[in-house]
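Researcher: Sequence recovery benchmark, item below. Answer with residues only.
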């Protein structure tokens, strides 16, 4: 048995469980001990923490702009094309970042997709077309 399997099972059980998490954790502990894998608890914990970090990253949308942008503007932006195609029901957190090197526009990044509507990218593409460096 691998620690990652235990951590995945624990994550899914906690996600679908409605009620007392302490009781569920106690049952999980008893199952691991009964299976003779008590020595794996530190590995299971580390694997569970990595799994949580990965799930949290998947639920995060990162919006990068050249100047600070308000939450209201971000909400309006994410409703417009092409950004509305990036949103999934699992996205819960929006992180706003400022990167002055993109000159203008925005870059929206999720764990699976990146939509670059920055002036930096547009200017770079224009430069490459002018100089013939495709």
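Model:
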């Amino acid at each position: 048995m691998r620690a990652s399997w235990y951590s995945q099972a624990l994550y899914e059980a906690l996600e679908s469980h409605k009620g007392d998490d302490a009781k569920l954790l106690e049952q999980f502990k008893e199952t691991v001990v009964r299976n003779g894998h008590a020595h794996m608890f530190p590995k299971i914990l580390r694997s569970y923490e990595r799994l949580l970090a990965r799930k949290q990253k998947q639920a995060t949308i990162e919006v990068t702009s050249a100047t600070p942008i308000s939450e209201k503007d971000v909400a309006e932006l994410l409703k417009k094309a092409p950004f509305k195609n990036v949103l999934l029901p699992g996205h819960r957190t929006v992180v706003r970042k400022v990167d002055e090197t993109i000159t203008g526009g925005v870059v929206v990044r999720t764990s699976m997709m990146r939509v670059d509507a920055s002036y930096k990218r547009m200017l770079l593409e224009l430069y490459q077309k002018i100089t013939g460096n495709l």
